[in-house]
Amino acid sequence: MDDKKLVYMANQIGKAFAYQDEAAAVASIAGHIRSFWDPRMKKAITAHEQAGGVGLDPRVLAAVRSLKAG
User: Fold this and answer.
1) pLDDT tens per residue, range 25-42
2) N or C: which terminus of the chain has fewer CB atoms within 10 Å of its end residue's CB?
3) Which domain holds residue 58?
4) What is the CA radius of gyration of the chain?
């Protein structure tokens, strides 16, 4: 799957949690990615973040960064 599609999908997840405050949204986005994305997708979105994270919404970017920490 290409980065453009992963960014789109991750940002869609972010929109689903837009009603939550910052901390809760970041945790929910990260939790969704952790639970439902296959390992190749998680590795690819993490690599995209490490390359600058172009196109990722701020909350999604924070969520992806938290995946590396946890």
Assistant:
1) 999 999 999 999 999 999
2) C
3) 3-69
4) 11
